[in-house]
Amino acid sequence: MFVLEAAVSGILFAVSALLVGTLMTAGFVLPKGEPAKICRQLFLSSLALLLAFLFVAGIWLVVQGAKLQGGQIPSLDTLNRYLLRTQSGRVWLGREVYGVLLMVGGILLLRDAKAARAARILFMLAWPLVACRSLMSHASAVKENTSIIVAADAIHLVATALWAGGLPVLFWTLFQGLTRLRSSLFWAAEIVGRFSTIALISVAVLFLTGLYQSWIHVQPFNALWGTSYGRVLLLKLFLFCVMFILGTLNFLSTKPRLLKAAQAKAEAPLLGRKALNRIGAESLLGLLVLCVTGFLTVLPPALHSSHSQHQTDATAGHLHQGGKLQAAEGARVTLVTPKPGQVFHSDQIPIRFTMIRGKRGHHVHAYVDGSLVGMFESEQGTLTGIQPGQHRLELRIVAEDHQTELDASAQTDFVVQ
């Protein structure tokens, strides 16, 4: 389930970044929106990407529901509780509604405005689709200066989308212009120059926000290589460095060479292919960065892993990586029923508990034999579909972000006959 969640999360962020990159290229990178044919194709592609975003987001919702039902297809009741009772669910619902409205707006804009102008308007309106991911990220779980940290995370995601999401679109645009439409090298040089300027600004923003986020989420810094989150973050930093080197090469070499060849009125087909190869390589790295960024959102931050003091045994089979939890900070849960050793003659198990939320507790996750089977905000509920045999039930208090599990739990054994 973790691998599936990570894959869907990575694809979802990649699609949203490509959406922003496509609109940016159509509205701001193409000189005066020319060639008009490419500009229109880019705008239509952005609408297709928006539709893909809504579809993948739907898959992500099903995955979240499946986590709550032990890997089974979620019921409508489970999805309803997730959407209405958790912060991540409410953000998902708002984002989907906004995406649908954006799709309708994009279609109307295409009818009433030129593609370049429509792309610029939709580009500005599409930012929240990327930025609101921060409301479901690790940043929203930080207890101090939350608004600042969430804002920094949102800016970081947008900057990533502009650079890494724009690169594959730049490659496609240059390929279409140079090989299909036989556009001039002046045109190619101007496009590379415009994108390079946006990329350099994005890199500066990424450096500042990334440094701040690392300070928040990765302490001590030896957690970079001592936790899964840290190691994946190092991979992302490595990919960024290679991208930066290639981007600098394009800015300092590719653009001047294209201009020089254009001024000399040379055909220079080899130069055009070389520029495409460089940008193509950078684009592949950009796609990898987008997937890794999405993968990071489902891993517990290194700070949480390195500072926690509780680790469950393997038989508990908890779904949080490494079994490490955050400090309870006053949160406490006590099971009332089932009683230890209680016998049930149905697959429906009623549970009751008392919960002290402390500073950060919001609801509980219910695990049966290590599988996450439900979540509860009220202090009672029913587990369904429990197979005959002896089982262990564990309740664990969770923060409002629906991801951060606290070191506050209660467990008991029961039997189903």
For the structure shown, list the relevant keywords.
417 residues; 2 domains; three-stranded antiparallel β-sheet; 61% helix; five-stranded mixed β-sheet; Formate dehydrogenase/DMSO reductase fold; elongated; Immunoglobulin-like; alpha+beta
Task: Describe this protein's structure.
With 417 residues, this protein is of the alpha+beta class. The chain folds into two domains: 2-304, Formate dehydrogenase/DMSO reductase fold (Up-down Bundle); 312-416, Immunoglobulin-like (Sandwich), CATH 2.60.40.10. 61% of the residues lie in helices and 14% in strands. The chain has twelve helices and eight strands. The chain has helices at residues 2-29, 36-68, 76-85, 87-112, 115-131, 146-164, 166-180, 185-217, 223-226, 228-263, 269-296, 302-307, and strands spanning 332-337, 342-344, 349-356, 361-368, 371-376, 380-383, 389-399, 405-416. Strands 2-8-7-4-5 form a five-stranded mixed beta sheet, with no helix packed on it. Strands 1-3-6 form a three-stranded antiparallel beta sheet, with no helix packed on it. Strand 7 and strand 8 (405-416) form a beta hairpin. The protein is elongated, with a radius of gyration of 25 Å. The chain starts with a helix and ends with a strand. The model is unreliable at 304-323 (pLDDT under 50).
Write a brief caption for the model.
With 417 residues, the chain is α+β, with helices and mostly antiparallel strands. The protein is built from 12 helices and 8 strands.
Helix content: 55-70%
Strand order of the largest sheet: 2-8-7-4-5
Strand tally: 8
Mean pLDDT: 82
CATH fold-level topology of the largest domain: Formate dehydrogenase/DMSO reductase fold
Q: Please tell me the total number of domains.
A: 2
Poorly predicted residue ranges: 304-323
